[in-house]
């Protein structure tokens, strides 16, 4: 650290973009007075300890964890699509969906292990089974789901053990939706404002986004004659994603703000445009392969952007004390009590 | 009445009179904790140092933050006690703050103008107020309903027989989930180690009948250790005394079993709003909403299944 200068206008260099304001009243004054650099959240009035965060931000790498969320969604919804396609006699659609599920879940496990640092550490997760820990529930879910998905893919490639393959496909389809949505609980069950406040709608956002991703991948690879379900799923999934996301932001209050600002805001905006664009494209892709590939790519990218955007917004909301303090202060005042 | 009120229940929030009992210790000693009375803290940092020494916590960088005498910033993997220094333009228990104080202008006048004889008035004749320092030694709250403990997937965070919350270092896998789950931002992942660390309330010392190192070293008894019930009693008396003496800003923080974490095992007497000290005004254990979260996730999963099967059900195209 280069040190900081104490000047007439406050402390420089302690935390960029901050006045060293303390105290409920001092904070308010400092924010309105227009001294120093522009505060990150201009009109908010609250006290804080030198603008330092109140809660800790998650110590996770975005690529590992947002990637894990995205791949889990893609895998879960793909398993379902594979089972549906198989049931309705569309082998050309079932095959890519099945492969996508196996590939995505393997990669997502790799991301998880990379986040933990050592493979053996994943085994610690299976020491206990705790319903109060979404991560514990998720570990057990993956421990059951991943082998089923891999079995389904392996038997299909081998072209043998059809009965085992059918059972594995069905099993993966039963667990798939849970794999796609539990990750929303994983994020929400934290003190991170922009994750916790959305706990009602986030599972639906993730479900819709997972459907979009699975539909996108299938759309890009499956023969057009069998891709009908993927086209319909692209539209339905995107509608669910965008609708739930809109509702979530409306209900979140201040914690919704990070979804509209900075990098998280860009990612979320991109996700909305890509998903909506992909869904529209998919509708007219029945006769044009190139359109189908473009639609698929847009849907996949949209789903990824959404996960990274949600992850980023959470980190932003954890780093700025306004998102922790202000809603809690209002809640307290609404209850009419003092701590 | 909340779910937590039934004794020994596996409640997710609310009052829990028998914390150790609910965690499976039938004959547990009384629950212990800290009462940190910040009105007598002198900011000497003896607690920070004693904690580091006793627990052999590695050095976490020698930095000058430049924001105050607080060069530690906050709690984390390598800081289990943290002394906050709040510089304020408002006298203790005194009137509202009115306008900016230019400390530099005030300092430049020092020694030049004739000093007033007798006690310095808290509010100067031109309406300006004096500066005051608030100091407070922060620590893990050892919550009755601890978010960190609830979300830990490995069971490495556990409830001790004393009702405190401790990490078992040989089992922690460094998933880091407890870090954002703590509503107070206490627990942290250590660089280069991968595992998380936080205050153990000196579990090793408790086991042999010693008080925690920080409380032992505190020269003003700002940090008091003991059975939680007794501490709560003592704290209420102290607040009443301070109020009687005109310090109307004095308040307890975290002592009520009715609060969002079911009452903290380490609570505080503060002289201003909690957020001024970097504490959340109304923390809630995140697990409180967990049943609703699982319900919504289940509904979303069913919706997803319906969408996919619905998409497949149409005629072949
Ligand atoms: S303060 Fe945080 S780390 Fe300490 S017990 Fe409570 S939730 Fe856990
Ligand atoms: S980092 Fe360690 S203590 Fe924290 S939740 Fe994960 S396993 Fe439990």
Can you put this structure into words, describing what you see?
- The complex is a heterodimer of chains A (339) and B (317).
- With 339 residues, chain A is mostly helical.
- Chain A has a single domain, classed as Formate dehydrogenase/DMSO reductase domain (Formate dehydrogenase/DMSO reductase fold, Up-down Bundle).
- Chain A contains 12 helices and 2 strands.
- Chain A has a two-stranded antiparallel ribbon.
- In chain A, strand 1 and strand 2 form a beta hairpin.
- In chain A, helix 2 packs across helix 11.
- The longest helix of chain A has 31 residues.
- Chain B has a 4-stranded mixed beta sheet with strand order 8-1-10-9.
- Chain B has 9 helices and 10 strands.
- By secondary structure, chain B is an alpha+beta fold.
- The N terminus of chain B is likely disordered.
- In chain B, strand 4 and strand 5 form a beta hairpin.
- Chain B folds into 2 domains: 282 residues, 2-Layer Sandwich (Alpha-Beta Plaits); 31 residues.
- Chain B is 26% helix and 14% strand.
- The radius of gyration of chain B is 24 Å and the shape is globular.
- The structure holds iron/sulfur cluster (SF4) (2 copies).
- The site of one iron/sulfur cluster (SF4) has 13 residues of chain B, from helix 4.
- One iron/sulfur cluster binds next to loops of chain B.
């Amino acid at each position: 650290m280069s040190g900081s200068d104490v000047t007439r206008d406050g402390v420089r260099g302690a935390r960029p973009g901050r006045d060293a304001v303390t105290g409920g009243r001092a904070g308010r004054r400092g924010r309105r007075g227009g001294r120093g650099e522009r505060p990150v959240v201009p009109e908010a009035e609250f006290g804080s300890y030198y603008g330092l965060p109140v809660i800790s931000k998650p110590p996770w790498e975005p690529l590992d964890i947002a990637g894990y969320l995205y791949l889990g969604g893609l895998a879960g919804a793909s398993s379902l699509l594979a089972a549906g396609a198989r049931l309705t006699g569309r082998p050309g659609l079932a095959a890519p969906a099945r492969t996508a599920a196996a590939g995505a879940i393997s990669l997502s496990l790799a991301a998880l292990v990379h986040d933990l640092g050592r493979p053996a550490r994943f085994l610690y997760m299976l020491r206990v089974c705790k319903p109060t820990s979404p991560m514990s529930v998720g570990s057990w879910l993956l421990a059951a789901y991943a082998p089923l998905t891999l079995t389904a893919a392996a038997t299909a490639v081998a072209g043998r053990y059809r009965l085992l393959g059918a059972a594995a496909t069905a099993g993966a389809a039963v667990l798939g939706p849970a794999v796609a949505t539990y990750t929303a609980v994983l994020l929400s069950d934290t003190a991170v404002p922009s994750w916790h406040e959305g706990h009602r709608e986030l599972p639906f956002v993730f479900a819709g986004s997972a459907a979009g991703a699975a539909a996108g991948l299938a759309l890009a690879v499956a023969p057009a004659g069998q891709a009908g379900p993927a086209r319909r799923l692209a539209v339905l999934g995107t509608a669910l994603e965008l609708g739930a996301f809109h509702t979530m932001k409306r209900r979140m209050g201040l914690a919704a703000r990070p979804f509209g600002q900075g990098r998280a805001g860009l990612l979320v905006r991109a996700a909305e445009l890509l998903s909506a664009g992909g869904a529209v494209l998919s509708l007219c892709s029945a006769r044009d392969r190139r359109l189908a590939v473009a639609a698929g790519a847009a849907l996949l990218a949209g789903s990824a952007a959404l996960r990274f955007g949600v992850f980023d917004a959470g980190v932003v909301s954890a780093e700025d004390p306004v998102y922790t303090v202000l809603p809690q202060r209002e809640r307290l005042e609404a209850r009419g009590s003092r701590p | 009445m909340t779910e937590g009120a039934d004794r020994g229940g596996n409640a997710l929030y609310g009052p829990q009179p028998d914390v150790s009992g609910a965690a499976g210790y039938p004959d547990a000693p009384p629950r212990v904790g800290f009462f940190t009375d910040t009105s007598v803290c002198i900011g000497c940092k003896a607690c920070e140092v004693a904690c580091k020494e006793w627990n052999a916590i590695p050095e976490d960088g020698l930095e000058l933050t430049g924001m105050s005498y607080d060069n530690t910033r906050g709690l984390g993997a390598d800081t289990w006690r943290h002394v906050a220094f709040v510089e304020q333009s408002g006298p203790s228990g005194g009137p509202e703050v009115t306008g900016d104080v230019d400390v530099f202008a005030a300092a430049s006048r020092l020694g030049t103008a004739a000093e007033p004889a007798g006690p310095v008035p808290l509010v100067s004749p031109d309406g300006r107020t004096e500066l005051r320092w608030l100091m407070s030694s922060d620590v893990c709250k050892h919550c009755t309903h601890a978010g960190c403990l609830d979300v830990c997937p490995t069971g490495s965070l556990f409830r001790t027989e004393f009702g405190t919350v401790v990490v078992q270092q040989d089992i922690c896998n460094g998933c880091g989930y407890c870090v954002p789950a703590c509503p107070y931002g206490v627990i942290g992942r250590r660089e280069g180690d991968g595992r998380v660390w936080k205050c153990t309330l000196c579990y090793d010392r408790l086991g042999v009948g010693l008080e925690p190192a920080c409380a032992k070293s505190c020269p003003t008894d700002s940090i008091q250790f003991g059975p939680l019930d007794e501490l709560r009693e003592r704290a209420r008396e102290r607040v009443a005394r301070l109020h009687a003496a005109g310090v109307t800003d004095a308040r307890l923080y975290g002592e009520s079993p009715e609060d969002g974490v079911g009452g903290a095992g380490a609570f505080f007497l503060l002289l201003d709003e909690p957020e001024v000290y970097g504490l959340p005004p109304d923390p809630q254990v995140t697990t409180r909403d967990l049943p609703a979260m699982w319900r919504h996730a289940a509904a979303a999963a069913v919706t997803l299944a319906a969408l996919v099967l619905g998409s497949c059900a149409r005629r072949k195209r």
